[in-house]
């Protein structure tokens, strides 16, 4: 297993290297110039000399290959450059925003578990009943509602009409634990409902499949109680697709969090990355994409390992 | 385009809602003489209730402020910057740099020399004084390339600055510079503590020297070793080696002394990009980049004391949260989580009847326009340009897309601007004339013109309306909608015949006219090259006599207008919404007196609480 993990990690580094070339090239292929973009917002910059000075300051006047190797070596040393959009150090930006997005994802995963599992299990156990139909419909609605619409409805319902939660913004846990929970309650719920709907559908179909297996029939024939049979025999194999859903959602953590972070004014990685794309903020785009690639690879690796743990048939020796 | 609009709406919002003051009272502090200009003569009509101290004012912006040294890139929120740093000169109600602030008075001695008297009794947030030395140091700091000030180019005409006495400086220019006052009311005019700037420079130098120190030590050791070896051998080479070693030791000692000195200067220094030291009414309390910036009240603000109002500013603090979405900003205002925001015209109807919210329209010094490529293609022909201009119904655009919040434009300087030519009327809507002109130009069956514009909802709505209007006279405007960043390339390569555009914050007339109508202007790239226009722009930049300068810019507008150089659509009206608890916002007086009124009239809460 250790050898397998090591080889996967080495393989990941190689992939990351090629990904870095791809990322750098794609960023430069995007039409537009970051300094020109800034000048369109800040008209005081509307002077060719000022703009050339700024291009030189950020190394944008150098040939592309020089820019790439400079970026790669600096990146590896932990010097990720300064953001063209905010002037902050990119590494500091990333480190400040990572816990925020992680908190969102942990919260969203919590909600998706709380909602998705019971919905899926009940729907499977009460197959073809009105309860199954209504839970399935609710799950589909959960998956289908656009995040920005759900977000604004929640803001108006629970911040404007019923002032329970703050309408937007983020308070770090270190500043005030209670306000932190209040500030992430709505965004994590909105984000969680998306995955919850999907999770409920997967849990239902997976459980139905498992419940129809011979070993479940045998367990029932042996007189095992329904609850014990569910927990001891059905739960573990039924978890496999769930791991896929959770793994995939964590893999797309940065990209998937953008809309929620945008709507609820949460300063996380998703908003940082997408804003960078709009502003052609190359240092931030490049760093974000490398992190996204790394995250996807790690999530896939974790999913593979958890699969092996849950299902001995796919265990790697 | 909408992004720019959102940004700018929010920027001005903060300023407009921060300031208040009831009326000027007697009893000025002895050491801080108050400004005594016309904008202070308001009488009792300003506000019916007495200001109350207390509360945290909460506003929102779609972007984080950026870096907190105005001379470094990027700064995204100039209004918040204006709470921390104050300028030498402010703009009046006609967007002209006439209102003394940290500069008390100025006088052109000749075309290339200005004598400027500075206000006494002003101190920066670190307790250091504002004086002639600090102004000279700051300007030289900006001009020094190694400090990376993007505003350096703005001070290009400066030859030198001479300290005449503690609060008088004499500016020497390389050539006559009519835009000097406008520049001092712009980025380089924001004053920063000299002590902090010196510490910043020392800190940068210290880092460099510390890096060099190890190498120098190694070098000295090597030379000393060689000297010892040479001494053992004896002879002339020993003396020479010892002299070299002595020189190296001295160099090291000098370096160590310098390091000690720099350490002393930069003791407790924190980078100005993150920890600003200005003289404004608020100081940085805490910030979370990308999330919010929170300022606290400056209890020693010179202006409040100078007019016998030591309670100014009235708020305990000022917080700007980053909320990217305009509907969430509005929800936050309605929920009481914010005290004031800027709103889009489409949101006007939502808040119009809200009893808890005040709405103030404010005519902005912005221009919405269509720029034409006259270097190639059909727009080289004035008849085509004229046909396009007459085919657009500006009133309908303002009514339909802006919900009435705009003023028809005649040329580049907005209607309230000091260089606006009042004799020019907006181009009339006359589709029949357009058709006739197209026919004369050789396009009796119409023509297709290429276009680019921003892909924001507002820009798309405008463009589609214009496409419809042009379609009626046989012009097909084939538009590509691109992100704001993506517009750069087609602009630079002139890959369009007509492009959408917006120019915000038109103060110093030289800035917009140079950007638009000189060949190396950033919104030109050779799209037009009118010698008469360029000569007028150069003359305006140099002219120091105000009345002559106004005449030059009137003439410039006339030439642009007569040549249909571009399509000037309208000057927008910005909308601000605030909680009724916010007091002191006299919109009429803001319109009349402009920026200086905003700077000198801090707001307050009715009950001292948000």
Describe this protein's structure:
The complex is a heterodimer of chains A (317) and B (610). Chain A is mainly α and 317 residues long. Chain A has a domain of 172 residues: MetI-like fold (Orthogonal Bundle). In chain A, 77% of the residues lie in helices and 0% in strands. In chain A, helix 5 crosses helix 8 and helix 8 packs across helix 10. Chain A is globular, with a radius of gyration of 24 Å. Chain B is of the alpha+beta class and 610 residues long. Among the domains of chain B are: 69 residues; 207 residues, Dipeptide-binding Protein, Domain 3 (Dipeptide-binding Protein, domain 3, Roll), CATH 3.10.105. Chain B is globular and about 105 Å long. The chains are: A mainly alpha (317), B alpha+beta (610). At the A-B interface, helix 2, helix 3, helix 5, helix 7 and helix 13 of A face helix 1, helix 8, helix 14 and helix 15 of B.
Secondary-structure-derived class of chain A: mainly alpha
Strand content range of chain B: 15-25%
Morphology of chain A: globular
Overall pLDDT score of chain A: 83
Rg over CA atoms of chain B: 28 Å
CATH-wise, what's the superfamily of the domain at 367-573 in chain B? Dipeptide-binding Protein, Domain 3
State the end-to-end distance of chain B: 33 Å
For this structure, the CATH topology of the domain at 367-573 in chain B is Dipeptide-binding Protein, domain 3
In total, the number of strands of chain B is 20
């Amino acid at each position: 297993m250790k050898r397998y993990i090591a080889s996967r990690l080495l393989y990941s580094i190689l992939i990351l290297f090629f990904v870095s070339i791809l990322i750098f090239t794609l960023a430069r292929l995007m039409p537009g110039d970051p300094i020109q973009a800034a000048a369109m917002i800040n008209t005081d910059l509307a002077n060719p000399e000022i703009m050339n000075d700024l291009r030189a300051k950020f190394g944008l006047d150098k040939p592309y290959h020089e820019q790439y190797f400079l970026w790669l070596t600096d990146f590896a040393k932990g010097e990720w450059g300064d953001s063209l959009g905010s002037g902050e150090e990119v590494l500091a930006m990333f480190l400040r925003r990572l816990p925020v997005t992680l908190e969102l994802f942990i919260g969203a995963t919590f909600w998706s578990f709380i909602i998705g599992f019971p919905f899926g299990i009940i729907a499977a156990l009460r197959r073809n009943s009105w309860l199954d139909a209504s839970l399935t419909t609710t799950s589909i609605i959960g998956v289908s509602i656009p995040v920005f619409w759900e977000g604004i409805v929640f803001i108006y319902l629970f911040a404007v009409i019923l002032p329970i939660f703050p309408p937007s913004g983020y308070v770090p846990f270190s500043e005030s634990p209670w306000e932190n929970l209040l500030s992430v309650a709505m965004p994590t719920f909105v984000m969680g409902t998306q995955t919850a709907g999907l999770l409920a559908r997967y849990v239902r179909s997976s459980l139905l499949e498992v419940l129809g297996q011979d070993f479940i029939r045998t367990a029932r024939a042996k007189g095992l109680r329904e609850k014990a049979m569910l927990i001891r025999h059905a739960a573990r194999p039924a978890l496999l697709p769930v791991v896929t859903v959770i793994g995939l959602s964590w893999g797309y953590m940065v990209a998937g969090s953008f809309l929620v972070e945008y709507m609820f004014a949460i300063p996380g990685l998703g908003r940082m990355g997408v804003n960078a794309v709009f502003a052609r903020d190359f240092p931030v785009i490049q760093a974000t994409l490398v992190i996204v690639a790394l995250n996807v690879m790690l999530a896939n690796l974790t999913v593979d390992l958890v699969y092996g743990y849950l299902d001995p048939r796919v265990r790697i020796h | 385009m909408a992004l720019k609009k959102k940004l700018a709406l929010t920027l001005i919002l903060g300023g407009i809602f921060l300031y208040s003051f009831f009326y000027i009272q007697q009893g000025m502090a002895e050491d801080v003489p108050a400004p005594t200009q016309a904008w202070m003569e308001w009488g009792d009509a300003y506000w019916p209730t007495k200001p109350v101290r207390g509360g945290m004012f909460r506003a929102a912006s779609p972007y984080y402020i950026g870096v907190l040294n105005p001379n470094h890139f990027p700064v995204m929120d100039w209004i918040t910057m204006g709470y921390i740093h104050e300028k030498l000169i402010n703009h009046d109600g006609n967007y002209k740099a006439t209102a003394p602030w940290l500069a008390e008075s100025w006088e052109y001695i000749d075309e290339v020399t200005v004598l400027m008297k500075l206000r006494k009794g002003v101190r920066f947030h670190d307790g250091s004084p504002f004086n002639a030395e600090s102004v000279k140091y700051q300007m030289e700091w900006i001009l020094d390339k190694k400090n990376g000030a993007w505003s350096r180019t703005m001070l290009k005409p400066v030859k030198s600055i001479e300290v005449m006495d503690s609060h008088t400086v004499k500016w020497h220019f390389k050539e006559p510079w009519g835009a000097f006052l406008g520049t001092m009311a712009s980025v380089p005019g924001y004053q920063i503590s000299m002590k902090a700037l010196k510490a910043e420079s020392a800190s940068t130098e210290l880092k460099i020297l510390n890096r060099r120190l190890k190498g120098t030590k190694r070098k000295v050791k090597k030379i000393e070793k060689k000297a010892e070896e040479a001494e053992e051998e004896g002879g002339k080479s020993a003396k020479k080696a010892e002299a070299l070693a002595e020189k190296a030791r001295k160099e090291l000692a000098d370096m160590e002394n310098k390091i000690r000195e720099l350490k002393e200067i930069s003791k407790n220094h924190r980078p100005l990009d993150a920890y600003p030291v200005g003289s404004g009414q608020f100081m940085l309390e805490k910030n979370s980049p990308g999330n919010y910036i929170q300022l606290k009240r400056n209890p020693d603000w010179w202006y409040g004391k100078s007019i016998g109002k030591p309670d100014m500013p009235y708020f305990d603090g000022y917080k700007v949260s980053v909320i990217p979405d305009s509907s969430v900003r509005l929800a936050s205002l309605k929920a009481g989580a914010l005290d004031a925001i800027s709103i889009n015209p489409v949101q006007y109807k939502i808040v119009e009847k809200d009893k808890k919210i005040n709405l103030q329209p404010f005519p902005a010094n912005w221009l919405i326009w269509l720029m034409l490529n006259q270097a190639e293609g059909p727009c080289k022909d004035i008849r085509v340009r004229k046909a396009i201009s007459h085919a657009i119904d500006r009133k309908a655009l303002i009514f339909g897309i802006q919900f009435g919040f705009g003023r028809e434009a005649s040329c580049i300087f907005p209607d309230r601007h000091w260089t606006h030519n009042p004799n020019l009327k907006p181009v009339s809507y006359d589709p029949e004339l357009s058709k006739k002109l197209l026919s004369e130009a050789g396009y009796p069956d119409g023509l297709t013109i290429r276009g680019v514009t921003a892909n924001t909802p507002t820009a798309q709505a405008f463009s589609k309306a214009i496409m419809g209007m042009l379609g009626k006279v046989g012009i097909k405007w084939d538009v590509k909608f691109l992100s704001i960043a993506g517009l750069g390339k087609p602009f630079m390569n002139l890959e369009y015949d007509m492009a959408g555009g917006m120019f915000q914050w038109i103060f110093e007339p030289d800035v917009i006219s140079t950007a638009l109508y000189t060949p190396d202007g950033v919104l030109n790239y050779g799209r037009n090259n009118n010698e008469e226009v360029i000569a007028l722009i150069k003359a305006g930049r140099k002219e120091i006599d105000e009345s002559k300068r106004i005449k030059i810019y009137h003439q410039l507008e006339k030439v642009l207008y007569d040549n249909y150089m571009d399509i000037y659509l309208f000057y927008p009206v910005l909308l601000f919404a605030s909680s009724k608890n916010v007091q002191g916002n006299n919109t009429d007086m803001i319109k009349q007196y402009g920026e200086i009124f905003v700077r000198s009239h801090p707001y307050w809460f009715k009950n001292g609480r948000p």
